[in-house]
Amino acid sequence: MSGIKTMRDAMIARILDLMATDERLFFLSADMGAPLLDTLRESYPKRFINVGIAEQNLINVAAGLAMEGCCVYTLAIAPFYLRAFEQIRNNLSIAARFNPLNVNMMGIGGGVSYDISGPSHHALEDLATLRSLPDVAVISPADWLAASQLPDFAQTAPYPKYIRLDGKGHEPVTTQPMVWRQGFQTLQQGARAALLTTGFMTQKGQKLVAELGEADIGHIDLFQFTRDLDEQALAQTLRGYGRLVTLHEGYLGRGGLDTLIDTLCRQHGLSMPVTHLGFPLAHQFLFAPREHLHAACGMGIEDVKTALLA
Amino acid sequence: MELSAKAIWVREQTLLLHQYAPGTRVASSLSPVEFLVSLYYGGYLRHRPQEPRWAGRDRLIMSKGHGLVSLYPILADCGYFPMEELPKIATQQSYLGVIPDAGIPGVETTNGALGHGLGVGAGMAIALKAQGSQARVCVVCGDGEMNEGSVWEAIMFAPKHGLNNLMLVIDDNKISMLGFQREILNLSPFVDKLSAFGWDCHRLDGHDMAQVQTRMQQLWLNPGQRPCAVVLDTVKGKGVAALENRALSHVLSLSHDQVETAIQELRP
User: Which positions carry the signal peptide feature in this UniProt record (chain B) (predicted)?
Assistant: First the structure.
């Protein structure tokens, strides 16, 4: 399984398969398209709904469908879900206390996928913001192969999920099957330091860890941020490393991957040095390719290598 | 008991709930009473109180959540929970809060934050149609709630999808929290606006039981091709002189004695 694909297309391809046999499956879009979505909406015109450019109604309609037992996918640009935060909070998170609500929010363009579109399209708050909700799972796959396995997992997980998908196509980082209820995977063993990444940063991390060769650097991809992360197992895995470096496309110290690891270390008595790399708390107006944006914010390839070898 | 007498009983019970829990929004809860009585006792809502989540039930979403405490006595009277539950409202011994939530038998959703009910109701209506269900969805909003943009996203959505199993009820009691709506955003006339958006919309005297019954007979039992809306011309705090037409009635609490006086006023 190789080749370049987007996470979005890989997910939609599998959803399309499942819609053939599962009549309770609906796909809602906030006027966002994709080539495969054309096939989907032509094949299932009654179960594909374009709600228009209306993210609040996207979530509300999805919630209503799910309350009647439907499994629902929603498609919108990642940061635009924040417009519907109250709808997610009230009609998915609170409502999930009383109903099994299988709503799968596909957020396209996690982090700075839309690098040259500027801050309105950057999703640097989504992980932290949605992680704050008690009954919403937050999932951040690293590659399209993982994304392609998500719909089958979603069928077995009847609760609201925010799924952060990268906007760019890429090669898969691994062919090992996803263990969704573990929430993390070790891509490279090591002892000196561990690089912890999520989403597209896992792809970047894999390349730079390979470049470090014999430096004994481990690499862990974290793809579940809330209910399905096995924190005990993650703490046990991290215990063997001399230092930790986290790298994610989100603001530092505001509830993202770095905060998750800090809390985990404190709760499980891990005391190795930890360095966090991510965006400073500032909207980014540098209209440049992604790596330039990273380098300008202290999270370029060389910054990560330096932190790992410290 | 005839429906008008039932409406008086519901108002009495709503006032007593306010006496037990002064944090309840009593004025807002008194305006939609005739509609609720018609829905539950007039032969319209299909439901099974002993089986609250019966698949064939009609769904009522109380989008103006805090303004529908008057539903509690109706739910108890219908048998969703014992009448003895009412005096325990807003205590550790009760599941009844001053805003209804979906943990209460007979309550579908948790509202209170405004502007959520209609979109959720539209989603339910689509699912019910897809499943071949005859069940209908009714969403009760306040006129102040119509200020929320998310309501209008759903208003645009429902006619496009032919949701003739969806009814929007606007309790037009003309006062939101800080005063009269005509001085805040003045969305009147609702009928013209909703009609322009493709709804089958009607205005009626929300306190005239005969009018409410006639309109429900037409719209609930014989739906057309479009989603329908009923604008109830109501009085906030209806039946209580200390509340009616008071700009800040939404946040007013009545004293124990005021409740006693108000109950005496209600009785014919």
Answer: none
